[in-house]
Design goal:
The protein has 271 residues and is an alpha/beta fold. The chain is globular, with a radius of gyration of 19 Å.
Length: 271
């Protein structure tokens, strides 16, 4: 971690005893660990299921053993993928026929285990379904990171498919703020969608990065991948009404902040 005041323990999520030992002093447990790279999940589904599903069960069991006040699961808006109606909300059923494979399946299973542990063992939980997150220190496989690093290196940005896949990108500070707002009783045993307010296409993201960087950025298109999803905008009304949460950083401002952060570190690495 970049902060010296944060303790870090490297733990194998598939080792239940190690997880229990690591969280021994926790009152509130935010379970954010997962294989969340869609490409990796497709390439190695067994490993992804072990980490995401077994890892969640081990962490839930550890939380139960030490009487954690709240188990918070990082899920994903991808559990809504393929839903035939516009703006599905937290009451919408999982739409199995066309949902995004492997990663979304593992998160659906993880959500179900949260409900199981609550019903069987009275373990309190809250589930947050993330939209497409971006910002400083984002994971390398994320599309904004991939586009931005290509642009910084003077390389061509590659878009798979026609670029019309749509996402509701959420800036990291907006997402972090949601985590700080769910520890009250109103969020007890509840699920919330937390994603950006406006849907944008992948092509628009690439063009926005090019425009903000104000330099030549080449964009090319490659054949679509089988697991790519056109995107589903979900309702964030429940979080707005019950928590008073809504995104505050729009895509243009968030991309500008992110680009400035990476540009500064790129200059430092080059010097």
């Amino acid at each position: 971690p970049h902060r010296p005041d944060v303790e870090f323990l490297e733990v194998d999520l598939t080792n239940g005893e190690a997880v229990t030992s690591a969280i021994r002093d926790c009152d509130y447990l935010f379970h954010l660990s997962a294989v969340s790279d869609l490409n990796l999940a497709v390439q190695d589904p067994i490993y992804s299921a072990k980490v995401n599903v077994l890892g969640t069960i081990n962490t839930l069991e550890a939380a139960r053993r030490i009487n954690v006040k709240r188990f918070i699961l990082a899920s994903t808006a991808w559990v809504h993928s393929g839903f035939p109606d516009a703006n599905p909300d937290e009451r919408s059923p999982f739409y199995v026929p066309t949902h995004a494979p492997i990663y979304a399946s593992s998160k659906i299973a993880s959500e179900l285990f949260c409900h199981d542990y609550n019903k069987l063992f009275d373990q309190p939980f809250t589930i947050l379904r993330y939209g497409s997150t971006y910002g400083p220190r984002m994971r390398a496989p994320l599309v904004v990171h991939a586009f931005l690093t290509k642009a910084l290196e003077g390389e061509t940005i590659t878009i798979f498919g026609d670029g019309m896949q749509r996402r509701n990108f959420i800036y990291v500070e907006d997402l972090a703020r949601a985590h700080s707002m769910i520890l009250g009783n109103e969020a007890l045993n509840q699920t919330y969608n937390v994603e950006g307010a406006i849907s944008v296409s992948i092509t628009e993201v690439a063009e926005s990065i090019r425009d903000i960087m104000d330099q030549e950025v080449r964009i090319e298109y490659a054949p679509a991948r089988s697991w790519d999803d056109t995107g589903t905008s979900v309702s964030i009304e429940k979080a707005r009404v019950e928590l008073g949460w809504q995104p505050q950083v729009d895509l243009a401002e968030g991309l500008a902040r992110t680009i400035n952060w990476y540009r500064e570190r790129y200059r430092l690495n080059q010097s």
